[in-house]
Amino acid sequence: MxxxxxxxPLKPALLAELAALVGSDNVLTAPEDVIPYGFDGTAALKGxxxxxxxxxxxxxxxxxxxxxxxxxxxxATRGSGTGLSGGxxxxxxxxxxxxxLCDRILEVDPANLTILCEAGVITKAIDDAALxxxxxxxxxxxxxxxxxxxxxxxxxxxxxxxxKYGVTRDYVMGLEVVLASGEVAWLGSKCVKDVAGYSLKDxxxxxxxxxxxxxxxxxxxxxxxxARRTILASYDSMAAAAQTVSAIIARHIIPxxxxxxDRKTCQCVEAYAKVGLPTGAxxxxxxxxxxxxxxxxxxxAAMAEIARSEGAIAVEEARDEAHATRLATAxxxxxxxxxxxxxxxxxxxxxxPRSRLSEIVAYVEEVAARHRLEIATFGHFGDGxxxxxxxxxxxxxxxxxxxxxxxGEIIDRTIALGGTITGEHGVGLAKKSFLPRxxxxxxYQMLRSVKAALDPAxxxxxxxxxxxxxxxx
Amino acid sequence: xxxxxxxSSPRPAHSTAGLAFLDRLDYSVLQQCMHCGMCLxxxxxxxxxxxxxxSPRGRIALMRAIAxxxxxxxxxxxxxxxxxxxxxxxxxxxxxxxxxPQLFENARAEIEHQGVLFHPERQFWRWLTLRQIFxxxxxxxxxxxxxxxxxxxxxxxxxxxxGLMRVLPKNLRELEPSTPTVRRDFxxxxxxxxxxxxxxxxxxxxxxxLTGCVQDLVFSDINRDTVxxxxxxxxxxxxxxxxxxxxxxxxxxGDLTQAKIQARRxxxxxxxxxxxxxxxxxxGCGSHLKHFHTLLADDPxxxxxxxxxxxxVCDISExxxxxxxxxxxxxxxxxxxxxxKVTYHEACHLCHGQGITKQPRAVLxxxxxxxxxxxxxxxxxxGSAGIYNITQPVQAAKLQAEKVACIAKTGASIVATxxxxxxxxxxxxxxxxxxxxxxxxxxxxxxxxxxxx
Lengths: 473, 453
What we know:
The complex is a heterodimer. Among the domains of chain A are: 2-98, 2-Layer Sandwich (Uridine Diphospho-n-acetylenolpyruvylglucosamine Reductase, domain 2), CATH 3.30.43; 105-223, Uridine Diphospho-n-acetylenolpyruvylglucosamine Reductase, domain 3 (2-Layer Sandwich); 227-335, Alpha-Beta Plaits (2-Layer Sandwich), CATH 3.30.70.
């Protein structure tokens, strides 16, 4: 595991000030308390922690940031620590700001179809709160049962429903943000139309804790779809599965989910979830359509027919609502379930224009063979977002060198196909070395200019997305 | 992707040389946790504090830090591992298949080995319970008889009323009212060593019966019911008379050495070659009994036998479903013909420890006149967790209150559950008016009613 080993203890006077702000129970410094904050959901990344602070409200966050600014101490903000790019791995010598105790839903507004909540609210709790009002919060990242909305916004998280419903950004109407200075700013409004000034809230969506600390989120909700149908198609070749996806889109059907799992992923997920996924097929596509009952029935029939005509060896429909939910839940566990095979599981998140999907999938297979690596692939086929997952062992240095080479090659091909190095996980630490390959000089410089303007001292999650900048005097 | 801040590998700050258990674990068991966080929402202690240390992922991180020499086995680590309920909800939640039970047992064993929680009074109680009372079947029976005498003679009421209780240490005093009521008849008084169905032609299986320790003294009626149901299913039942504790109590509480002694002694009492199954009706025991092969892996005399043992052990509901539950001719249900509402609490070590969820419901479905109302959060721990309600009374009481609130919502007059710890914890929580029963007892009663009709 890679470690940044310097963690100087904070001065007792500062710890006392932090304790005065949030209560001594919520300032953690003992090794047994802080070691578990040394990582997020990303393999092979670890940092050491001097101090974890758990505020319960915005004022406290502002106070902590002011203290850190005064003392020149960096802050890494986190929610539940399920990120997949190392974005919330602690910064050496810094404070970990954990927002899990800021977990109140402040308002559901059924007249304006909005919900206002604190950053530490669990993603699934938002949809659960919308449900009694007949409303729906669609973004559903794999970790939705535990990920926090603050983390989702900071990473602009996607999920299984991105194809039809978009990603977290598409639902953010307003944000409360604590700036690097400790000032509190409100950005956005409940208005459907709002073009007053720059869209500053959008700057913070996907900013990975480097520009400010998101403390409250105002989200758009949509009417809950009345019907839903789930179909599972299996194939004896990846190409046929990819072709089905292309044919569905070409027929102008936009289902909410078009998920793909290869054989290895199916076997691991089935070993865990036991939901009846075919473990012998080369590829499985999980399709879901939702909306008005008539349209849903029509689309489900059309998708099943397309799957058959593209050579699916089996096409089956979920037995009932509960079975459909179990299938989707099983799919969400894919990444973790793959950890059954080898000790270290390195997840990629490359995304290409949909028309280039089969090319990147074939290329990943080729890379795996060339570097003698075990790579399982699953992902959001409808979005062109694939997750090649390298199953390896971080303690095997020779194999890890081949892993590095393979990653680099997959990234280069993705960029050559007009794709992006990350579709939904963010850059964090894991992908920052690849970022300059995707950005031209001017745009890469613009990223750094924005950072310098909003965090001149470079104390907010420094070293994430790009290497730390020299502080602006 | 590994190019961040610093790549210097840490020099172990603490020696790992003194470790006796955590370093013997295959490192891959620790590595299996890829810290994705999927376990967090299932963990009762994490949900209580929302602090990583109190989560399965956090605890595994601490174990890994110890194995890596970055952290010593400290008192705080010890306290953390005893704050963990060992409910294994994280095992069900974990997509990566982390063997948390193994980590948990070895971590607690390490803590005891290093003595970081040493306190003379704690050591005394551990010695008395783990190494004496629950280690020696005859002594356990003697203690049981004395306790029965104390409870049945009215002395316990006298003690409480007279204020004599005040001479006892505080922790004993607080414990006394929740001491389970010991039965006059223990299992051996109710069950003969060998019992066969009346019609000898109908013997299809030979089954060994595990009577347990708490179950033996406090719920010997459930053991009798289990044997009755087995006989009704064409099983010839062998029940060794003085079985003693299977060692799960010791294994779950950091005494793997004693657990191995208990396991060997228990296995010696059964003729494995002659049996089709060895049946347990206590979830906490069953979950441990199925892993003797791991426990005794380094014992050349027992490793092979333990493997066979693990294959034979099953929960009573699991066994009944496997051989097919004999239907009961439908009765009239309640006296006025109305179905009685029953709800089912899933014992952690049945649903999470053994993955058994459908079978007990199938047993309940076989009982005429019962209407199963599903319990919200049925798989959440009730706070009993072995002896957790004794060692961590505050957290245990919170979980008990949550469980009781969910039970109240069902409107059920019977709570079915298949573990003595849960049975007592829930009965203490719901008070009178709601009855806690083992599913197999309900089935046994139905067969009896059928016979008497």
